[in-house]
Amino acid sequence: MKKNDRSRKDSEGLTRIETTKEWKMLYFQHGRAGLEESSEFRGLCRHCELRDICAIQKPESGVWRCAYYKALTRKKTNLYENVINQLEKAADVVHFDRDICRILAETTNELVVHFPVKMDSGTVKMLTGYRVQHNNALGPFKGGLRFHPSVDIDEVRALSTLMTWKTAIANIPFGGAKGGLQLDPADYSIQELEKITRRFTFALGNNIGPEYDIPAPDVNTNPKIMAWILDTYLSTVTPNERNRCLHVVTGKPIEAGGSQGRYKATGQGIVFLIEKWAEDHGFNLKGATYTVQGFGNVGSWAARLMKKNASKLIAVEDVTGVILNKEGIDPDDLADYVEEHGGVLDYPKAKPIDHDTFFGTKADIFIPAALENQITAETAEMLNVKLVAEGANGPTDQEGDKVLQRKKIDLIPDILCNSGGVIVSYFEWLQNKRSEFWDLDEVDYKLQKMIVDAYERVRDTAEKYKVDWRTAAHIVAISRLETVYKERGIFP
Ligand code: NAD
């Protein structure tokens, strides 16, 4: 669309916004409290296709972008529901103890904190943070912190429950938790983000702790943010305790007590499992094609590590845009570009495509590594792949699952597929506790062993009960928790 077409109105009188060089990084805020009526434009977004766009604003950081795709608007209604339905589905197959299922269907603790932070402008802003601790029957609560506008209590409940299943399947001595802040980091300066993180950590107080609840990175959080959390937490304990508390958070920078291999761990785990799946199916990964949704920590590392198999990345979607090159995209080169430009948009060695074309692109493997509920009945119908390896948490909704099964597309479910991150977090936690440093080979070797063992448990369970892999993964997790509850009994 050309500049002078911008004023074209649809039948409802809203200005239709198209993706153009000048407009494509417009930032849409939908249904967000405190939105300014005086915002520049009102209209429809081609990405998210919302009919009731509130406004388009340029945030203080100056990065224009649409943070809301169509699928995201459906997320709130069903992620937690999906998680609980899946628990019930597994319980119906194996007839788990109903009392234990009742325990597992609830979270243990839910903390919502509201706290003030002084912005660069001198004004004070109130922010809301969450930490939900789902279960700690197997060990301390463990799970990431997410900074994203869609974070709310239901999302965090669902993600904390998935963490409990994930640690149980991986056979590591942790429970499940999740947390986050409802904000878009692009709206804040780096100084503001640091203040927000530190104040959030302070507000969480001793609801987190190295032997109690251990956060880690997730969407829009990274080792730097983990280092701020560590530093703030250490400032609240007595000096003689400090060196014993390094493991209050994992995913730290190496210099601040992080582990070799943690940064790439989730992507590395995905690649180990794709290799195992290929071995089991006699499938040659050399020259195999794959597409990736989300090119942040998980997606970019999975893509980069697939290079060693000589597989070919052909399409990528992230929040800024969607690109395709059937001849292959070099994941390292794209990662450098994303680092510099903030997203895949305008990557010069591929052509732009739209969301639907991305989902319809024929490839051998699809790695969703963005947000939840991206594979719906509608998008699953479009998929033309042999395997979906779920890097993201909850990327497939229940209807999407049914379509994948009908189309006989293999699936490595999230609670198995992306467990590499929490497995190496466990290694980091152990190294901190024992004052040890493991080298990368040792970390990778142990990760591969643990994640492939978990894969085999899920595969064998799927064969034994003749169920899909997601149900099998739940059966593995819930069996482990059921055994522990039965052995320990219920207090008092
Ligand atoms: P990240 O913030 O590093 O990257 C997120 C990516 O998703 C970005 O490329 C972003 O542009 C893209 N994205 C966001 N919204 C999108 C949309 N609507 N459509 C397309 N792309 C979109 O986050 P991450 O740490 O890579 O996490 C990605 C997923 O993996 C999340 O579901 C997270 O819970 C899960 N996960 C992360 C880890 C970890 O160690 N970081 C571990 C396990 C699971």
If you had to describe this structure to a student in words, what would you say it looks like?
The chain is α/β, with parallel strands linked by helices and 492 residues long. It has helices at 70-94, 98-104, 153-170, 190-204, 223-235, 265-281, 297-306, 331-341, 355-360, 377-382, 398-406, 414-417, 420-434, 440-465, 469-488, and strands spanning 15-16, 28-29, 43-44, 55-56, 109-118, 124-135, 141-147, 176-181, 213-217, 289-293, 312-317, 322-329, 351-352, 365-368, 387-389, 410-412. The strands form four sheets. The protein has a seven-stranded mixed β-sheet with strand order 13-12-11-10-14-15-16. Strands 5-6-8-7-9 form a five-stranded mixed β-sheet. A hairpin with a 5-residue loop joins strand 5 (109-118) and strand 6. The longest helix has 26 residues, at 440-465. It is globular, with a radius of gyration of 22 Å. The termini are far apart. The model is unreliable at 1-77 (pLDDT under 50). The structure holds nicotinamide-adenine-dinucleotide. Nicotinamide-adenine-dinucleotide binds next to helix 7.
Q: Which small-molecule ligands are present, each listed once?
A: nicotinamide-adenine-dinucleotide
Helix content: 40-55%
Number of helices: 15
**Overall pLDDT score:** 87
Strand numbers in spatial order across the main sheet = 13-12-11-10-14-15-16
Beta-strand content: 15-25%
